[in-house]
Design a protein that fits this description.
The complex is a heterodimer of chains A (362) and B (191).
Chain A: H1 2-33, H2 53-62, H3 73-79, E1 82-86, E2 99-100, E3 112-118, H4 123-134, H5 136-139, E4 152-158, E5 178-182, E6 197-200, H6 205-223, H7 279-288, H8 292-312, H9 321-361
Parallel strand pairs in A: 3-4
Antiparallel strand pairs in A: 1-2, 3-5, 5-6
Chain B: H1 2-14, H2 35-38, H3 48-59, H4 63-66, H5 84-93, E1 98-102, H6 106-115, E2 120-123, E3 129-136, E4 141-145, E5 154-157, H7 158-168, E6 171-175
Antiparallel strand pairs in B: 1-6, 2-3, 2-6, 3-4, 4-5
Chain lengths: 362, 191
């Protein structure tokens, strides 16, 4: 009898526990199944690493951060089928609310990419930005303020922007601004990561636009034959400040660097087309003998030649652009001064001889 | 046998993600954000909408959108829950161009965004917003990054994604800016 009583007690306890667990489970299920607005029998066919909507919903429910309503769902329901286009023009009034129903814009994955990499305190970068806003040559390639009207997708990146620096890890950017052109995302003109043009800005928008067009034309010509080939931080960082330094809204201005030989790095242009031998100076040296201006002309040519060779071979340059330009200016000034001295020398000799001839005559 | 089990357990603990987990950059993904950048947008205090828009802001190089969570020269930080009207307000204040889409049409907008190389901040899960990273139309797979676990990119089948999106109410925010270029690299095409 005692045994029967014990067994009954144990049985009751187990049953009570099971009911309790079931009730808890039911409660949990109700909470979890609440967001599943549309039941879908196909959910069991998901891939191993795929999550279900209810799983994600439950995970977000259980996290402490999401206990408060993070999304105003009631407002979403109130709004109904609406596309609101906030265009940054700060328009106001009932007519300018821009709340209208419309479908997505046209597919723009066939646009080329033009990226400009700038740097802080770079006057040439500012100059390029200003020129791109008004030069018809550059606007024909990209309209910075109107992405829809733009022929290419146009992006300006700042070297100091830590949130973007990793994008350009695979290429060498040594001068600013650097302009990079890439094929469209849809792969119609080959791998979209290919650098079709890389160059800097010398202050001539027409020249830059023509260089870009030339590079694209050459790229298409070269790749047409192989078109078939193309078919195909820490969590603790969250605080008051962003975990990287966002690009500055306003950059300081420095004098524009002198640009003499700003040629695109890609596609490379052979050196022979740019620097011709200083034949006049060589002939002068051979015929008239030693002359400092002629020697300087040959030296300047040699310096240019060596520099271009080093650029082509990807070697580091001995002088940066500014120092190089100063050296060339110095040599040219010296040559000019020497030429002036040589021009004035015979005159002074003749003035000294003049009195002697007068004496003889007298 | 025990040793093998211990090694297996250790490996499982050490490996942060499944071996076949998708990661940026990948052709199937529209968004290209390394995990270390995504981790900046871990949801700190129930700001899932701003976290999701912030990720898109970095992806599309829109600093005013990328810095929504913090006090910067682009504006005061925006923290806490949001609805479409609040998003419209702070986007106007910061001069951020967005498509603020609610209703049945969100599917077409999300597909458009992924097809054109853009991400989208989308309603995903009850009272929750996440970042849509991509859509593979061939396999019907949606790729989503949850700001509660930003190191990982979750994959959803059409049906499970549908359930996920409907759980929050149909609302998406897409930045009206050009998509990012693919990470450039040199190919000697001129030879």
């Amino acid at each position: 009898m005692k045994r029967v009583a014990v067994w009954m007690t144990v049985g009751c306890l187990i049953a009570a526990d099971a009911t309790c667990v079931e009730a808890q489970l039911l409660r949990r299920r109700r909470v979890v199944s609440a967001p599943a607005v549309v039941p879908n029998p196909a959910s069991s066919q998901q891939q191993p690493n795929q999550r279900t909507g209810s799983e994600a919903a439950s995970s977000s429910l259980q996290s402490p951060a999401s206990r408060l309503p993070q999304v105003d769902e009631a407002e979403v329901l109130r709004m109904g089928d609406v596309v609101q286009h906030v265009d940054g023009l700060k328009r106001a009034g009932p007519d300018d609310d821009f709340v209208e129903v419309m479908g997505p814009p046209e597919n723009d994955s066939d646009k080329w990419f033009i990226s400009v990499i700038t740097s802080r305190n770079c006057a040439a970068c500012e100059r390029l930005k200003a020129d791109w806003a008004r030069s018809p040559w550059l606007l024909a390639l990209a309209v910075p303020d109107d992405p829809k009207e733009s022929w290419a997708h146009f992006n300006v990146y700042q070297r100091e922007d830590g949130s973007q620096a990793w994008r350009f890890e695979n290429i060498r950017v040594t001068e600013f601004p650097t302009i990079i052109v890439q094929p469209p995302r849809n792969g119609r003109y080959g791998d979209p990561s290919t650098v079709v043009f890389q160059g800097t800005y010398g202050g001539d928008p027409r020249q830059l636009a023509q260089d870009i067009s030339r590079a694209i034309r050459l790229y298409l010509k070269k790749t047409r034959a192989v078109q078939g080939h193309f078919g195909q931080g820490d969590d603790d960082n969250i605080g008051i400040d962003p975990p990287w330094s966002p690009p500055s809204r306003d950059d300081g201005r420095f004098p524009l660097r002198p640009d003499r030989d700003r040629r695109p790095l890609i596609p490379p242009i052979p050196v022979e087309h740019e620097f011709k031998l200083p034949w006049q100076a060589i002939i002068k040296l051979l015929t008239a003998g030693f002359s400092i201006p002629a020697v300087i002309a040959v030296v300047v040519w040699l310096i240019y030649f060596i520099r271009e060779r080093r650029k082509e071979q990807g070697k580091t340059l001995l002088l940066d652009d500014e120092a190089f330009q100063r050296l060339i200016d110095l040599l040219e000034n010296f040559a000019e001064a020497e030429e002036e001295t040589q021009r004035t020398r015979p005159k002074s000799k003749s003035t000294r001889r003049k009195p002697a001839t007068t004496k003889r005559r007298g | 046998m025990k040793r093998l089990a211990v090694v297996a357990c250790l490996l499982a603990v050490l490996l942060p993600e499944p071996i076949d987990a998708i990661e940026c950059p990948d052709r199937r993904l529209a968004v290209d954000l390394p995990p270390q950048v995504r981790r900046w947008f871990r949801n700190p205090d129930g700001s899932c909408v701003q976290c999701s828009i912030g990720m898109c802001g970095v992806d599309q190089n829109v600093p005013a959108a990328a810095t929504l969570l913090w006090d910067t020269e682009y504006g005061r930080r925006e923290r806490g829950g949001s609805g479409p009207s609040r998003v419209a307000r702070y986007c106007r204040q910061r001069n951020i161009r967005v498509y603020n889409v609610t209703g049945r049409n969100t599917w077409a907008w999300m597909k458009w965004a992924c097809q054109t190389g853009r991400g989208a901040a989308i309603g995903a899960g009850r009272y929750h917003f996440q970042t849509l990273m991509g859509y593979d139309a061939r396999t019907g797979t949606w790729y989503v990054c949850d700001n509660n676990s930003p190191s990982r990119i979750d994959e959803y089948s059409e049906s499970s994604f549908r359930r996920l999106h409907l759980a929050s109410g149909q609302w998406v925010v897409i930045l009206d800016y050009p998509p990012h270029p693919t990470r450039p690299r040199y190919v000697a095409w001129w030879k």
